[in-house]
């Protein structure tokens, strides 16, 4: 039985606390792609340039990256439940404020606050789901990736439907949905056991001293630059109405979800994680290169198709980050995310700037190069990464309140 089948067996038999956390996670991930279909509308409504509007992603992920060092520090002191609720509260407040923005500067600032809340919530949600899920780690990671894929697919759709009325409405919609998530977690999630040892701010950085985790983080950094060039810059290239752009990124998100939850585990079982990751990164590089030089129809097709490669990459990188080192999962995840989210902050800023300095094709050339660099890191550092190249087997121990698995 492959990892997908093993995980799927316990996927639907989960406590209410897990479903509440997973449901709120869907909305949290929706917030990432929510603004995609309305980026041109925001630019028009606030009289801003594409590079200014792209700062919505930059401020969001820059704060998210730095906040990753704080998530373990906070959750190990006040507990997972309170950390989730604190993160949700930040998102609710700043998403609502974003909808009231009178300038692009205000909107960028409110997105930064949103990013802080999202960091506290998303990083803790994975630990909570793994700790509370029935069916073991495989089912928990599968459920988390399902939430990610569903959120990524539905975010652009919600953004398109509400954004067609006004670019402000998607922000108010997110605040409302997050408020529902806040109530569900309050009602169904009991406080999680606090770890025996409190996590310091420096622990995630110390975890990066492990060669395998550092290699996974650096490779993911290059990959994330490519990922967020597609997510943040392509809407300006496609230049479509919110509905049409939302439909494109909904299809993109569906492929992302299917390939992350169903296809990736089967491919890993057959070919091995590192071969799958390296091959997927090279194919993603080819895809974005064609996207940059093709006509409009080709660009739409390649945008949707990129979701398949991104879905595969997300699953493999998540498993590598959580299993390649001996660091507790929350600490390893924080260190890994600290590195990779800087690329998510950089790409939305640099892609429009590169277009201004050169032409519309070159941002995609750069994105193709970074995907190849990610694959080269996997190739060169494959020995350091092979600790997680096989399927994880359970090791009956608990660290930081999270069941740990290793091969």
How would you portray this structure in words?
The chain has 407 residues and is mainly alpha-helical. It has one domain (3-387): Up-down Bundle (Growth Hormone, Chain: A). The protein is 79% helix and 3% strand. The protein has 17 helices and 2 strands. It has helices at residues 3-9, 16-33, 39-45, 50-53, 55-78, 80-98, 104-132, 136-163, 169-188, 203-207, 211-238, 242-271, 273-293, 296-323, 329-357, 362-380, 382-385, and strands spanning 393-399, 402-406. The protein has a two-stranded antiparallel ribbon with strand order 1-2. A hairpin with a 2-residue loop joins β1 and β2. The longest helix has 30 residues, at 242-271. It is globular and about 55 Å long. Mean pLDDT is 83; it is low at 1-9 and 388-407.
Mean pLDDT: 83
Biggest β-sheet: strands ordered side by side in the sheet: 1-2
- CATH fold group: Growth Hormone, Chain: A
Elements, N to C (H/E): HHHHHHHHHHHHHHHHHEE
Separation of termini? 17 Å
Shape descriptor: globular
User: What's the CATH first level?
Assistant: Mainly Alpha
Q: What is the tally of beta strands?
A: 2
Q: In terms of per-residue confidence, which ranges show pLDDT below 50 for 5 or more consecutive residues?
A: 1-9, 388-407
Q: How many domains make up the coordinates?
A: 1
Q: What is the radius of gyration computed over CA atoms, rounded to a whole number of angstroms?
A: 20 Å
Structural class: mainly alpha
The major β-sheet equals:
2 strands, antiparallel
Question: Level of helix content?
Answer: over 70%
Give me the CATH architecture, please. Up-down Bundle
Strand content: under 5%
CATH-defined superfamily? MFS general substrate transporter like domains
Task: Give the number of helices.
Answer: 17
